[in-house]
């Protein structure tokens, strides 16, 4: 079953995560289900009901409709609320029904038909990583859309990529990463060992050492039907790295070509992101492509430590960016008495003529009051002398064009550090390329140039055991 975050399905289905749009700033995430499984859902004759300030919405009215539909609130029958036992037979019946299809007659037969209420409605929206980020339950600081859209672009996360993320935190970045790498489902058993767990092209391997947060992300991935794309692992990555452990204790490599580290000490995790391998521990990285990394750190001291370690480990093209995202609102400003009563208009004098006309009106009213005696004049809406607003009279280009920039930035500002770990490049590779491309003979290749600076040969080992990798010849992926 395809996740509502990924597919292009046009109607809502049983089990989908949907966002109930209450207002511009408030969206309520709900798992659509006609199956009463939680204690708080029991007691409605209509089955599972979500209550909002705009009324009650039985899920039977939200399933099987086009995404984006407006749904009217229903009058719900709460007669049996609190008498849970009466619903037991309904739950048992519901348990036997697959969650993989829209509610059919069998699923809804025990439920009372919902009756529309006289007022109140919501819109049912398809979730996106962006809307999920603004509505998710925060368990940690999260990465917001302005940052993750740029990060995913810079680490070249694209359909088919394999991405390592640590830590999972609240799963905000995880959702965006899953959408970026998802490239459809592969044939079953394509890979003997890992194939059963990895039925999609494009994978996210997310690691978290806080047990509760890990469990929540794992559960969320199942609920959001993203578990085929995202593998959540409970792990201290500083200590134990990014391998995928199997029951037999064997280390499997995720073969990542993109990495995102949102950790307090990313430099401590870098030792596990090298191309070095030994007999039982393969490299966690994809040997056939350059690896693009981003680390996300709020303090410059963290960045400095990470850069030092990146240099030691052979990462190149190290670059730091801070995203200063600001939304600009462009609108027309309507100033003048003629716009009085119009929403958003500023009802003050728009020019000297309007100011004088209003002054005359006020004086005239005061004079009338004096001649009529001391009786206070009834506050009447005087329209003489000023043209009152009427929608038909306002032309599209009236008002002054102005812009406001958003003051409240909803982003957790951090320094984004990017780097690339090139492909390993040996003298044999160099010789092969030179043989295949004779036009290179005579002009020194990039490797030769590197060699001139680094006479020790292909892959100089530093005294601390780390490698000083040589940048490869330009690779398609890097151009
Ligand atoms: C700021 S949060 C990540 C938020 C996440 N990027 C998001 O968008 O929701 C950092 C997470 O890293 C986890 N963490 C810290 N040290 C870790 C380690 N050594 N191994 C794995 N996870 C770690 C923390 O428990 C925390 O949940």
TrEMBL record:
<dbReference type="Pfam" id="PF08704">
    <property type="entry name" value="GCD14"/>
</dbReference>
<feature type="region of interest" description="Disordered">
    <location>
        <begin position="437"/>
        <end position="479"/>
    </location>
</feature>
<feature type="compositionally biased region" description="Basic and acidic residues">
    <location>
        <begin position="78"/>
        <end position="87"/>
    </location>
</feature>
<keyword id="KW-0539">Nucleus</keyword>
<protein>
    <recommendedName>
        <fullName>tRNA (adenine(58)-N(1))-methyltransferase catalytic subunit TRM61</fullName>
        <ecNumber>2.1.1.220</ecNumber>
    </recommendedName>
</protein>
<dbReference type="GO" id="GO:0005634">
    <property type="term" value="C:nucleus"/>
</dbReference>
<feature type="region of interest" description="Disordered">
    <location>
        <begin position="363"/>
        <end position="387"/>
    </location>
</feature>
<dbReference type="InterPro" id="IPR029063">
    <property type="entry name" value="SAM-dependent_MTases_sf"/>
</dbReference>
<dbReference type="GO" id="GO:0031515">
    <property type="term" value="C:tRNA (m1A) methyltransferase complex"/>
</dbReference>
<dbReference type="InterPro" id="IPR014816">
    <property type="entry name" value="tRNA_MeTrfase_Gcd14"/>
</dbReference>
<keyword id="KW-0949">S-adenosyl-L-methionine</keyword>
<dbReference type="GO" id="GO:0160107">
    <property type="term" value="F:tRNA (adenine(58)-N1)-methyltransferase activity"/>
</dbReference>
<keyword id="KW-0808">Transferase</keyword>
<feature type="region of interest" description="Disordered">
    <location>
        <begin position="76"/>
        <end position="112"/>
    </location>
</feature>
<feature type="domain" description="tRNA (adenine(58)-N(1))-methyltransferase catalytic subunit TRM61 C-terminal">
    <location>
        <begin position="120"/>
        <end position="420"/>
    </location>
</feature>
<dbReference type="GO" id="GO:0030488">
    <property type="term" value="P:tRNA methylation"/>
</dbReference>
<keyword id="KW-0819">tRNA processing</keyword>
<dbReference type="InterPro" id="IPR049470">
    <property type="entry name" value="TRM61_C"/>
</dbReference>
<keyword id="KW-0489">Methyltransferase</keyword>
